[in-house]
Amino acid sequence: MKRNTVLITGASRGIGRAAAAAFAENGYDLVLNCLHSASELELFSNDLKKRFPIRTLCCYGDIGDADFVRAMFHQTADFCGGIDILINNAGISHIGLLSDMTYEEWEAILHTNLTSVFLCCKYAIPYMVSQKSGKIINISSDWGLYGASCETAYSATKGGVNAFTKALAKELAPSNIQVNAIAYGVIDTDMNAGLTAEEQERLKEEIPAGYFAKPTEAARFLYQLAQAPNYLTGQVISFDGGWI
Ligand code: NAD
Question: Would the pTM count as exceeding 0.85?
Answer without folding.
Answer: yes
